[in-house]
Amino acid sequence: MTQEEYNVWACTIPGIGNETIKKIGTVVENGEDLYFNTKEVLKVPGITGEQYETIEHSKKKFQPEKWEERLLQTGVMHCTFFSPEYPDSLRYILNPPRILYYKGRLPDPTHKKMAVIGARDCSPYGRQMAWKMAKEAALLGVEVISGLARGIDSYGHRGALDAGGITHGILGNGPDVIYPKENKDIYGEILKKGSVISEYYPGTPSLAKHFPMRNRMISGLSDLILVVEAKKKSGSLITVSYALEQGKEVAAIPGRIQDLLSGGCNELIRQGATMISDEKDLFDALGMSFKKRVKIRKETLTPEERNVFENLGTEMVNVTALKERLDPSLPMSHLMKILVSLEKKEMIQEVGRGYYRKICESSHSL
């Protein structure tokens, strides 16, 4: 067998769970080391003689060709707890997945990561905030993590994608299973730059019991967990509990006090979660500079857009005066097209009929 096949064998032994593999990893370097030095596991506190016998017996039954067949059919890749590409952010959590099955590219260990989580049956406000905060983070190079579920998850992924960023879907089913079906387009777009990841073998259906387990991976992979909308008794709070166990920072977007979908978020803030009320709060929570956001936005401008942007100030300017300042011969219709484009890029805003100002540098102190 190859070294990776030894790794797969070690991480698929029936009866040897995630925490046991984590313990075994303290005395052996990889699956091959375990295969030829199995007695080393008896040095690990808590490992029983019965588990040792289970490992020994499994050597005769493992068929790597059969195991790999389904992966080849579905285009799914894998990495084990002993593989060098296994994310360190998962390696040291409680109950780390023994093996990851994925499509696309695993999260970049050099990039910051933010989880966007919340209610499936979310409000228009929640959808907007999930999309906007994910987009803002992605524009700074932050990779967005979520569960590819309906509602907040979907809008978090979409915000990152609309920014041209990288996002990863953590699944409660096999990585080749698209659930829910309406997320088929998002699933395909995610794979262009990011990944879908699961601890479940290809073909595994979506089951309710899988999702709480999936949540520990969402928090484990992330530096910041952002709760957008959640009831006081919500599945999102399971992810929060994992995040707190893992020492991760938790943030929440506040909502109206009588809104059931904001009850969980408001309670988290009351208990000490970071309150996110605007982009500046988000960047502070991520430990990133708001100035960098302005720089990135400017880099996306065309020469004409840049010229108009630089001629606007933090005080509102009438479009006619702006036209005179730029070029009196410039057609008003062309100037309006540029202003509309800058509005879509959230660089400027119309503050009154025919009056504009910058927003990238005026909303917050730089």
Can you put this structure into words, describing what you see?
The chain has 366 residues and is an alpha/beta fold. It contains 17 helices and 12 strands. Strands 1-2-6-5-4-3-7-8-9 form a 9-stranded mixed sheet, with helices on both faces. A 3-stranded antiparallel sheet has the order 10-12-11. Helix 7 runs parallel beside helix 8 (152-162) and helix 15 crosses helix 17 (332-344). It is elongated and about 85 Å long. The model is unreliable at 361-366 (pLDDT under 50).
Secondary structure elements and pairings:
Blueprint: H1 3-11, H2 18-24, H3 31-36, H4 49-58, H5 64-74, E1 77-80, H6 88-91, E2 99-104, E3 113-117, H7 124-139, E4 143-146, H8 152-162, E5 167-170, H9 184-193, E6 195-198, H10 210-221, E7 224-227, H11 236-245, E8 249-252, H12 263-270, E9 274-275, H13 279-286, H14 290-299, H15 303-310, E10 317-318, H16 319-326, H17 332-344, E11 348-352, E12 355-358
Parallel strand pairs: 3-4, 3-7, 4-5, 5-6, 7-8, 8-9
Antiparallel strand pairs: 1-2, 2-6, 10-12, 11-12
